[in-house]
Design goal:
Layout (H helix, E strand, L loop, with lengths): L16 E2 L4 E8 L2 E8 L4 H8 L18 E4 L2 E4 L12 E3 L12 H9 L8 H16 L21 H7 L10 H13 L7
Parallel strand pairs: 2-6
Antiparallel strand pairs: 1-2, 2-3, 4-5, 4-6
Length: 198
C-alpha cells in the first residue's frame, strides 16, 4: 500500500472531479494537511503550492525543470513541481521545505546547511534541501546513480561519497556557487553527523 496520500488510498479520491470544462476539484495532502482545491487544469503543482496554499518555499526559477529551485517531495520522491500538473497529483502527499522540520526542530539537512554555511542568497536552498532529502532516501534504498560502481551490490545502500552527492544533486543549480558546502552538508546529514542546532 502506498504512503498516506498515495493514489491507491482506499479513503482518498481516485481522480479529480470536474467542476466545469477547465477546472476540477482535487485533494492534496501537503506537509501532512489535507487540502481540497478547485484548480484550472493548467495549474502546476508549484503554482498550487505558492498561489493557492501560500507555501512560497519552493521557488519559481526557470519554470522549465532545469534549475531545481522548485523541488519538492511527492510521495517521498523528489520532483520538479514546475513541470507537474496539480490535477495529475490528486490524492498525493507533497512535502515542501516548510514541512521538513518537526515543529521548531529543524530537519538534519536544514541543520547541516546552516552549520556548513551551504548557501549565499538562499534562493535555491529550499529546492537543494528537498532534493537532498530525496538523495538520502534513494541512496538508502539502493538506487544507483551514473557514478555508482559496477561492483556495488544490487539493492544495497549506496555510500554517499562526494562524487555520488555531486552527481545526484546535479539537477539543482546554485548561481552563487555554494556547491562545495552543499556537498559537505549532504555528506554530514548522510553520515548522521551531529550539527549545531539553531
Amino acid at each position: 500500500m502506498p504512503p498516506d496520500g498515495g493514489p491507491d488510498r482506499p479513503d482518498g479520491p481516485e481522480a479529480p472531479r470536474p467542476v466545469d470544462g477547465r477546472r476540477s476539484e482535487l485533494v492534496l495532502t501537503v506537509n501532512g494537511t489535507r487540502h481540497t482545491l478547485v484548480l484550472d487544469h493548467r495549474t502546476t503543482l508549484l503554482d498550487a503550492l505558492r498561489e493557492h496554499l501560500g507555501l512560497t518555499g519552493a521557488k519559481k526559477g526557470c519554470d522549465h525543470g532545469q534549475c531545481g529551485a522548485c523541488t519538492v517531495l511527492v510521495d517521498g520522491r523528489r520532483e520538479n513541481s514546475c513541470l507537474l500538473l496539480a490535477v495529475a497529483h490528486d490524492g498525493r502527499a507533497v512535502t515542501t521545505i516548510e514541512g521538513l522540520a518537526d515543529g521548531e526542530r529543524l530537519h538534519p539537512l536544514q541543520e547541516a546547511f546552516l552549520e556548513r554555511d551551504a548557501f549565499q542568497c538562499g534562493f535555491c536552498t529550499p529546492g537543494q534541501i528537498c532534493s537532498a532529502a530525496g538523495v538520502l532516501a534513494e541512496a538508502a534504498a539502493g538506487f544507483p546513480s551514473y557514478v555508482t560502481g559496477e561492483t556495488s551490490r544490487s539493492g544495497a545502500p549506496v555510500p554517499l561519497t562526494p562524487e555520488e552527492i555531486r552527481e545526484r544533486m546535479s539537477g539543482n543549480i546554485c548561481r552563487c556557487g555554494a556547491y562545495p558546502r552543499i556537498t559537505e552538508a549532504v555528506a554530514d546529514a548522510a553520515a548522521g553527523t551531529e550539527v549545531a542546532g539553531p
